[in-house]
Amino acid sequence: MNVRVPVFAPLSPMSGTARLASTETAFAHDPLEHMLTRLRTSNDMAFLQPLVEQLAAHRVRTTERVFVTLSYSQSLDGSIAVSRSSPCSLSCRKSLEMTHMVRSFHDALLVGVNTVLSDDPQLTVRYCEGDDPQPVVLDSTLRFPEGARLLRHLTRKPIVITTERAPVDRLRRLEDKGARVFTVAQEQGRVDLHAALRLLRSLDIGSVMVEGGASVINCILARRLVDYCVLTITPNFIGGVKAVDSLCQPRNATPLSIVDCRYQTLDRDLIAYGSLSCR
Ligand SMILES: NC(=O)c1ccc[n+]([C@@H]2O[C@H](COP(=O)([O-])OP(=O)(O)OC[C@H]3O[C@@H](n4cnc5c(N)ncnc54)[C@H](OP(=O)(O)O)[C@@H]3O)[C@@H](O)[C@H]2O)c1
Questions:
Q1: Whose CA is nearest to atom 45 of ligand 1?
Q2: Tell me: the pLDDT tens digits for 52-67?
Q3: What residue segments make up the domains of the chain, in order of their start?
């Protein structure tokens, strides 16, 4: 991986614009510099600078594990979809642009196979400039549909992480269509997330944005594997698929929290962001 060493300006309570200016030279010659340039030219998105700084710092200081950003959109009642089988667009245009910008900051973008089955997502960067991340799908038995749009990307064919429960013929067919399929250890019949992240690291992936769906969000939070959150809260009541369920068991378990949580409005949506207490 291309790792250069930037000098980091300390995080300070300066305005977004002032902080961007003060760190301008800090990232000189670093590949992440172009991200800061994009933030500089987009006033609304300057609040993403701490995330970019953490991604850069992580790359320099810790190379043995993947930096994980959790980013999804939910309604006021905590729903991420109306039902598991139908796609549902929650975010306003501005927060979609933000989400795509966050995608472009990361080496990889991870979802569960149910999201592929229900939404047939492209997992690309379309609402802003930037490189597409590497799509990664957790899929213990290779239910991945062979007609999925992810298989049509010209250069970024999906990485599918599976277990020994996957039928060999399905594995071969997906590989024939260009997917890179890797088998890792299982935990309770599903892909072991620790093993999946170790695998990604060994593939030279330093940062992953986890977008969903609910099962993957629950699992990654329960395993305490999240470094940073960028959550979009939209002004709807849905009463649908809850993003998070039964995390604090037993009852007296300490809730996970975003340290020094900050908020940003993007048109009608509210973005809550910051580092998670679990790492
Ligand atoms: N609002 C948003 O931002 C957003 C983002 C993404 C998705 N969504 C929505 O989320 C819904 C899908 O959510 P979902 O909970 O049904 O499915 P999901 O999280 O997308 O996928 C879950 C599936 O992934 C597989 N998996 C393998 N290893 C896993 C692990 N360690 N932990 C968790 N899952 C693992 C399991 O299937 P196997 O056992 O077969 O491997 C599991 O059933 C869709 O409606 C979609 O539209 C919303």
A1: 84
A2: 999 988 887 767 899 9
A3: 1-63, 66-276
